[in-house]
């Protein structure tokens, strides 16, 4: 018997592309018709967005959660991508014109297979998997996101790191001209993130190239980004152009910006507060039912789970490590 | 119609309605008429109400310097209205946090106020604004005499705490609170400069167009 799981919801069932585009058109004309400019400005969702091409040969994964995914609108209009601005609706606003082809990835450091690879060649050997993961932002909000990607562990295996390699370091493109956020001094550019080899070869992390079965939208990190579901969202580096195998722990962007607030590990941990706010609970975006006023009153926070609920797969990676000090 | 009546029956209602626009937009956006609140509506509400609260505090503090510099004495007729709108938006900011963000969970609220310094100082600023709003009527003002102005000068403390509260909670980009801080510094600096000037040379009671310099 086939039991329909929430994980099987396709974007077309949530909002058909036609309705979606029609709604945009309607909202745009309504906006033009004279409703408040402020309100239009406050809403990234009203900006015209082209959706990505359908990805072929995507298989399901046992690691996917059964929880209902957030809407395409929520995922693509409310996120952090400081390369395109610091506000949640800046990425959707400023990333539309960003060119993600041609794209290449440079692999360097302590590995047997190094060099520069064309993106298509880089991902071709692997099977695309849909991974519906919880995403917990360090700012205490969360989503459920149906990513499409390739297991990072498979990629690492192919690149054959030397035994001296202890960390995998990722770097985002540095392109001040097309990434307006890099003109400001919000973070030190380019963005750098990293994982230990043990973390990177765990089955959970993926290099995501898609969302909702379609090519990844620019604002979510196209053409290729990291997803590590048991860590805070800022570990999920976007627009990756460099992968480096290192003996030393990298100095990651947020740890450089505020080392007392953001650490290298950044594991989701309800018991270790951010210095300025509690991490014990989180607001699930879009969790409230209904619309208008009603939606405001039943959007209470939910408890945050240790390792974002992925403890079974990853807790052993941190045996003997003081997670309070190594936050 | 004389100027007093004109202000009272035309300008005051117009300014009042203008000050309500941010609140009206919140209602419109919540109902999906003028726009939308986005993916995280509660955060958006807190953000908007808090920002408007700070803007109205700064607007209120601008009234007197602007009156002194321009000589437009009618400006002071709007000061209380702006001040009460500041209180209104800060109150909405507080209620959004209390009811929607914390769902009235007393333990979480107490923890937030006691353990999160940025919330502690925001709460302190709110308490100050309550005392100012509560003593804003003409009757109480008259009854309090000179103590009224002394009490109401504390609005500068509330403004400092409010901007600090904002600055402290942003993750990285402090542009907005920094702009507020610059404006407040100018306003506070002007008041201190004037006060010193008055103490130093008692003859000089004003400056600008309405100045009474010899």
Walk me through this protein's architecture:
The complex is a heterodimer of chains A (327) and B (214). Chain A has 327 residues and is an alpha+beta fold. Helix content of chain A is 21%, strand content 20%. Chain A has a single domain, classed as Sulfite Oxidase, Chain A, domain 2 (Alpha-Beta Complex), CATH 3.90.420.10. In chain A, strands 1, 4, 5, 8, 9, 10, 12 and 13 form an 8-stranded mixed sheet that branches. In chain A, strands 3-2-11-6-7 form a 5-stranded mixed sheet. In chain A, strand 4 and strand 5 (141-151) form a beta hairpin. The longest helix of chain A has 16 residues, at 17-32. Chain A is globular and about 55 Å long. Residues 3-14 and 23-46 of chain A have low confidence and may be disordered. With 214 residues, chain B is an all-alpha fold. Chain B has one domain. Chain B is built from 10 helices and no strands. In chain B, helix 6 packs antiparallel against helix 9 (155-169). The longest helix of chain B is centred in the N-terminal third of the chain and has 30 residues, at 41-70. Chain B starts with a helix and ends in a 14-residue tail after the last helix. The model of chain B is unreliable at 202-214 (pLDDT under 50). The A-B interface holds A 31, 35-36, 38-40, 42-46, 70, 73-74, 77-78, 82, 86, 88-89, 139, 141, 184, 186-187, 257-258, 276-278, 281, 283, 285-286, 291-293, 295-297, 299-301 and B 25, 28-36, 38-45, 99-101, 103, 108, 111-112, 115-118, 168-169, 171-173.
In short:
By secondary structure, chain A is an alpha+beta fold. Helix content of chain A is 21%, strand content 20%.
């Amino acid at each position: 018997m086939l039991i329909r799981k929430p994980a099987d919801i396709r974007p077309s069932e949530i909002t058909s592309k036609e309705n979606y585009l029609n709604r945009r058109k309607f909202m745009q004309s309504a906006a033009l018709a004279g409703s408040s400019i402020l309100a239009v400005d406050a809403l990234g969702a009203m900006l015209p967005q082209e959706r990505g091409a359908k990805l072929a040969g995507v298989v399901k994964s046992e690691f996917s959660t059964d929880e209902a995914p957030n809407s395409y609108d929520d995922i693509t209009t409310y996120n952090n991508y400081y390369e395109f601005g610091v506000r949640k609706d800046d990425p959707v606003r400023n990333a539309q014109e960003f060119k993600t082809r041609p794209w290449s990835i440079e692999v360097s450091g302590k590995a047997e297979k190094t060099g520069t690879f064309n993106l298509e060649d880089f991902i071709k050997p692997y099977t695309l998997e849909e991974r519906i993961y919880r995403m917990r932002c360090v700012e205490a909000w969360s989503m459920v996101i149906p990513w499409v990607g390739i297991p990072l562990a498979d990629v690492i295996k192919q690149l054959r790191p030397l035994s001296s390699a202890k960390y995998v370091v990722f770097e985002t493109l540095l392109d001040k001209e097309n990434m307006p956020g890099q003109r400001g001094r919000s973070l030190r550019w380019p963005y750098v993130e990293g994982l230990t080899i043990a973390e990177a070869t765990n089955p959970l992390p993926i290099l995501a190239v898609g969302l909702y079965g379609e090519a990844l939208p620019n604002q979510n990190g196209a053409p290729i980004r990291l997803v590590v579901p048991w860590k805070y969202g800022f570990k999920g580096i976007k627009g990756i152009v460099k992968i480096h195998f290192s003996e030393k722990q990298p100095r990651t962007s947020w740890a450089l910006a505020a080392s007392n607030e953001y650490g290298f590990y950044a594991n989701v941990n309800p018991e270790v507060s951010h210095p300025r706010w509690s991490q014990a609970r989180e607001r699930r975006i879009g969790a409230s039912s209904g619309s208008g006023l009603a939606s405001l009153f039943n959007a209470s926070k939910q408890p945050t789970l240790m390792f974002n609920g992925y403890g079974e797969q990853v807790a052993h990676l941190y045996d003997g490590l003081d997670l309070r000090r190594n936050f | 119609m004389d100027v007093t009546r004109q202000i009272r029956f035309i300008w005051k209602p117009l300014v009042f309605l203008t000050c309500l626009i941010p609140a009206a937009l919140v209602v419109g956006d919540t109902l999906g008429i003028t726009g939308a609140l986005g993916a995280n509506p509660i955060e958006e509400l807190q953000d908007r109400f808090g920002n408007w609260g700070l803007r109205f505090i700064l607007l209120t503090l601008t009234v007197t310097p602007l009156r002194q510099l321009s000589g437009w004495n009618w400006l002071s007729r709007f000061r209380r209205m702006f001040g009460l709108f500041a209180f209104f938006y800060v109150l909405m900011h507080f209620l959004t946090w209390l009811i929607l963000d914390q769902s009235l969970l007393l333990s979480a609220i107490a923890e937030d106020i006691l353990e999160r310094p940025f919330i502690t100082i925001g709460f302190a600023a709110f308490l100050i604004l309550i005392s100012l709003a509560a003593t804003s009527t003409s009757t109480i003002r008259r009854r309090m005499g000179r103590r009224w102005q002394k009490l109401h000068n504390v609005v500068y403390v509330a403004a400092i705490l409010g901007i600090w509260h904002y600055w402290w909670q942003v993750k990285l980009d402090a542009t907005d609170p920094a702009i507020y801080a610059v404006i407040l510094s100018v306003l506070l600096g002007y008041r201190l400069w004037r006060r010193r000037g008055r103490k130093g040379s008692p003859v000089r009671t004003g400056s600008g167009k309405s100045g009474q310099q010899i």
